[in-house]
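ingest -> fold -> write
write: protein_1
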Amino acid sequence: MTDRLDSKPHSIFLLRVLDVLSSSVLALVILINIWLFASVNPIVWVDNIADDAYYYLGIARSLATHGLFQFLPPFETNGFQPLWQGILAVDGFIFGTSARSMVIECYGMSAIFVAFFVTLSKRWNGSALAGVLVAILFPGIMLSGMETVMIPAFALLFFATTSWKSRGLLGSLIFLGRLDAISLVVARDVYLFIRRRELDLRHYAIILPVAVAYVVFNFWRFGIFLPVSGLAKSLYMTPLENLITAFQYLIWMFPALVLLAVAFVLKRRGGARPIAFKHGAELTICIMAAIVCALYYGSMSGWPLWEWYSWAPMLITYYALLEVIDIAGTDIGRGRYRRVSGTAIAVTAIIFAAGGFNYTLKTLKMVMQAYFHAPMTASFGRKNLELVDWVRSKRLPQGTMFAMGDRAGSFGYFLGGDYRFLHTEGLVADAAYYNALKKDEGLSYVEQQPITYWVAEREQFLQAADVIGVAEPVQGLSMHKGVYLICFDHNAIAVDQSYPSMYSPTHDQNEQRYVFDMKGRVDCPAPLQAQFATLRAGYGNVRAFSLPLQQEAVGVLHPYIKRYLGF
């Protein structure tokens, strides 16, 4: 939708040098990560893949080996975005399904999409640098093994194509890549109608049949129309009660707004009239898509936000970077080196403030931990691997069933298919568990399962005398029914994996992480039931009680944004 970057020959040379240098650094960091995945103990790098990515990997392993949509037996699930799940399953079928192999495949496929995005950025918008910078600034989207890595490349292709058939194909890929990303397609159509009175909807002749086929397949195979992961997040929520998350989502645009402000000031100083952004159409479309996503999460979902949701703010940041780079290139071409220096200082300050080198530093830290025995900070991912080692050391029989909610991805994935598993948050559970939660009969459902161990990690539990109460699911902010309480005698703790919380500023408060033996399950005493009922009635109270440090750390400003502000 835009022309390529305009610059004089000597400015083009400098920008090409920056493109090559930045791309080389990113490639080197990616290769180091792949080397680490292939050569060192997973306990070093387990947290470099998003915990939710391990759900994808577990299901991909099951599809590649058994043709079943299972994270672990015995529950079939549709808790995934379909295109990424299919790609990983094919990778597993071709290249192998060992735990280490599939992590490398997942990260390698992410790297391919990152390279594709950077290449398209260079081809269509004249700058690989912008693509590299946003990839490093948003590693949760691009380098954590999540499906969102596909969306930026698809978006650039979608904006560039002029064929309605190509738009239909790319729109379908965008939808199958991440369902909420269809907002990008709709936003483009609305923008063109408002701005240019253009209304060409022929691409929906391809997109709509794909969407209908996906919904029909879900109902035929799983008995529900939409992914159980999304349904679980919207369970029993009060409309608009979670609206604060819409504001939090839009805060992700903070770096883009700063960049646009820099571009505006530089244009103003340069005397440009009118002051128009070169990529104004794409910026407007992405902002419209971001607003739609924000309203969706604020009105239809009852959960907090996670970093990979911010694909639309990332695209806005990308186009804002292009604006600043375009101004710098123009200034160099016209010999305005004073303005260029100011631009360079401003952009550099933003990148540093944004923690753009955090991912690189994290990679170097893993190298130090692997080869120089630097100390490793305790994390739930590392505790998950320690728990897997405990299971194997105990030689628990095949088919032993575990139940765990939040933070269970790496545990279930490395545990492997010889064991059974129920995901108590419902993200990779089956439709029966979702329907039980929907009927407020979650506790009755789990009582019917042959669960041997219940794993729970909280900053604090409900307690009365020697009884510990675990609320499940815990992540729902606006979920006043469906949440249930299961209680254990204190002596039921088979393993205590408590460790210092990353959310504790002084590191003197623990994540209380227990493996409960189900033989020690007891009836919840009346005081605990009354306290639980009070918590469940309020907005976010169950989560705030169970994870107070994490809840306080999030607050109104998402932790990712606090990183930008230097908090």
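write: protein_2
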Amino acid sequence: MRTLRSQTWFGGTGINAFIRRSDMKYGGLPDDMFDGRPVIGICNTFSEMTPCNGHLRELAEHVKAGVLEAGGLPLEFPVFSCSETNLRPTAMLFRNLASMDVEESIRGNPMDGVVLLTGCDKTTPSLLMGAASCDLPTIVVSGGTKLNGKYNGADIGSGTDVWKFSEDVRAGVMNLEAFMQAEDGMSRSAGHCNTMGTASTMASMVEALGVALPTNAAWPAVDARRARLARMSGRRIVAMVHEDQRLSQVLTAEAFANAIRVNGAIGGSTNAVVHLLAIAGRIGVPLGLDDWDRLGQDVPTIVDLMPSGRYLMEDFCYAGGLPVVMKEIADLLHLGLRTVSGRTVGEIVAEAGLVDGTVIRPRSRPLAASGGIAVLRGNLAPHGAVIKPSAATPALMRHRGRAVVFHSIEDYHARIDDDALEIDATSVMVLQNCGPRGYPGMPEVGNMALPKKLLAAGVRDMVRISDARMSGTAFGTAVLHVAPEAAAGGPLALVQDGDMIELDVDARRLHLDVPDEELACRRTAWRSPEATMTGGYESLYIAHVQQADRGADLDFLVGCRGTTVLRECH
């Protein structure tokens, strides 16, 4: 019989085992809790600074109950929690830091398996990245979404309607009083964003990857079935330890292919690109931007959710959630893959309900015929850039326009509403120095708000290009993740006002119409922007962060290092 990892901490009669068991008994644990039963770490991103995860303390209790019922010993531990709304300068700067916290906590502590409690955008990838570098039996439990927002007799969605209302206020078609009233009705319960933003996308991705139980993505945070799923996950992780079902057995190349195709079907966030690339890099699965384009290009978007569509995650839940979506595109998926549930993808989707035809559409009537993330290349993005066609304006998918360049986000804010700014609806807005190194942290500023004077004239979308990201709740014709970024000396740094830029999404082309000789001349005059901070984590990040096309992970964190610790602590 296999000796569990935790027994190298708690087993035997030596002094170290004595010290550890004695210390752990402070909480009333009886002797038989150390008799060789699986120790399950519950990795919790609860924080009152992270509103989306503010209920995870209670959810952890349901996981613990399940672990105990299955004969395991649950031990909860906290890790760094990345709040998308509260954390400055951007939560993405700290995704990799959080993953380091997770990895070292798992490796250095006596656990045989781990349950990852996630919610807000970066907590899902950071926890899965850290766990992937350890490769223990692992299961994810997402915190669930908010209930539908309500305002003026209609449903409103987190993020998506914020962007819309903000534009309406700036255009003069919504007054400030109404804007403030909408604020009160947007977040009616615990949970993360109720649109198909990054949080809901990543909850869907872990389910599609097979590292969460079926229906993980859809149940609202306050639904009793979310608590039930947490309890069942607690039971299941104990079985996974006995089966030695490690994360690397689930996170295979075929599982990532499934997730990419599901992302297209749900109209998922562009942020899933950098996160899945980083997770794949940790577990050792080769995955690149071209895989995103190849696998997702012909997948129709069949989920009618904001920001691409009309409905919200609560509606998605009642329509059957992700298993129904996966059943509708089953012929595109690897159905034989075994998931953390103990069942295969095929067995799960076979039990799914029917397409309701409204929130989840049949493939014969998609929201977008080709809903996957499009990967663009050209002399403006030699290593790639991404765009989400399902959230963009079809008429702008092929466009040629004059560049209006903003050298930083501060430059953008200072000039965007200046009446003297030479910009019209055909212009291409270009934002530089907002990539992984340049901000630093690659913030969600790529969906730049349009100038007031154009909003007042009825313009609601323009082509926007940057090395930044965009909120998964946002919409518009935004070309994102341009690599190499401007701060790394990529061609984006060389764009000047008046340059002509050509976008052709069907051809996957992003071209700066400037002669090579002129670009070479500009490069000799280019200087790298100065760092905003010296010392500390930020300096470490800038020195080691990879570009967006490689997942923006730190170079020294890539790969699986396992859980072996050779030396004792006493």
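write: annotation protein_2
The two ends are 28 Å apart (CA to CA).
The first strand starts at residue 39 and ends at 44.
pipeline exit 0
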